[in-house]
Specification:
The protein has four helices and eleven strands, in the order βββαββββαββββαα. It is α+β, with helices and mostly antiparallel strands and 162 residues long. A hairpin with a 2-residue loop joins strand 10 (122-123) and strand 11 (126-131).
Length: 162
């Protein structure tokens, strides 16, 4: 089962810059992730212009009226991408797919979740994610007419426990 969660970048101050680190820019009001391809000579100037590097986390936001969230996956656990219901294969996630999550889905994604353990499903210590898609099985039993009858917490409980 897949549940909706959010991909969030968190900046940090490294001891030194290294190739492959993620940095964020904002394009058209959307986060765009890019990697450091070379180590700049003047690290301080580079970070003043580009900000600090970021790590990616997947969080479950819970009640949007509260500033609480639960971390579902840490940076080292983000690794597999599922193309959706029409494909049986998973692959390593790419920066292009991450940027599409930010640009087309405002950071929201679907993460494979085990409703028995209430934890993300791990394969080789990595989670599997896919794009948020309203046609996912998790959303099929949600009727728009029921939206007025159910509060947000009831809907979230249904996603986790179904």
């Amino acid at each position: 089962m897949f549940i909706q969660a959010k991909l969030v970048p968190k900046s940090y101050k490294p001891l030194k810059l290294e190739q492959g680190m993620f940095f964020v820019t904002i394009k058209n009001n959307a986060i765009h992730l890019h990697t450091l391809n070379f180590v700049p000579r003047d690290v301080e100037v580079y970070t003043q212009l580009n900000g600090m590097p970021v790590e990616l986390y997947i969080v479950f936001e819970g009640n949007p009226n509260l500033k609480e969230f639960e971390i579902l996956a840490t940076p080292e656990q983000i690794g597999w991408f599922d193309q959706g219901e029409y494909s049986d294969e998973i692959s390593d996630i790419t920066i292009k797919q991450i940027n599409k999550i930010f640009s087309d889905h405002q950071g929201y994604l679907s993460i494979e979740f085990d409703h028995i353990t209430n934890q993300p499903t791990l394969y080789d210590n990595k989670v599997t994610i896919r794009y948020v898609d309203e046609s996912d099985d998790d959303w099929e039993d949600f009727d728009e007419d029921d939206e007025q009858d159910n509060n947000e917490n009831d809907f979230e409980d249904r996603l986790i426990h179904d």
